[in-house]
Amino acid sequence: MTYHIKLEEYACPDCKAEYIPYEEGLPCPSCKTIPTDVSEKYFGFINELIASLRINKINSGRYIPDAWLTASFADNLQSVFFRLFQFWSIKKPKDGEAFINEYFKNFTIEDTEVEYMRDYLHTIALKVHSRKEEIRVSWWTRRIGRFLS
Ligand SMILES: [Zn+2]
Questions:
Q1: How far, in Å, from the CA of 32 to the mean position of ligand 1?
Q2: Residues contacting residue 131 through CB under 8 Å, at least 6 positions apart
Q3: How high is the mean pLDDT in each 10-residue block of the chain (149 residues)?
Q4: CA of residue 70 to ligand 1 center, whole Å
Q5: DSSP assignment of the chain, as one string?
Q6: Which residues pair with 11 in a beta bridge?
Q7: Fewest CB atoms less than 10 Å from the CB: which of 32, 46, 122, 137?
């Protein structure tokens, strides 16, 4: 079982950049305009992302699920964080923030060369990392999670 975030990408009314406006007052990552028409449904994005990382860890012992179909914008975003946090969990860096900063220095996105996405994803990664206790899964949780699924 995996968890797909069911949010359509949002398009900036000014520059048409596509992204998910995950918090109120977030400037467009491309043109920096703060849109005023953003639906509240987007504001649960980080919580959902953390939930999907937890679900993968419980079900497969890894942040990358055994199978993942990328059909939507959100699916693609999720897969970026699945890979990053899997790498993080293997490396076990003492300074997790420095590790994430380094990771995004050399980060390229498949099928796109949209530069603004790098900073956007980097910021989300730091937000998830600041809540890293929520994606850590204990041995017992995994045992029970597997039993229930
Ligand atoms: Zn814009």
A1: 6
A2: 46, 50
A3: 94 95 96 95 97 94 94 95 97 97 84 77 97 90 72
A4: 24
A5: -------PPEE-TTT--EE---STTPPPTTT----S---GGGGGHHHHHHHHHHHHHHHHSSSS-S-----SHHHHHHHHHHHHHHHHHHH--SSHHHHHHHHHHT---TT---THHHHHHHHHHHHHHTTGGGT---HHHHHHHHHH-
A6: 18
A7: 32
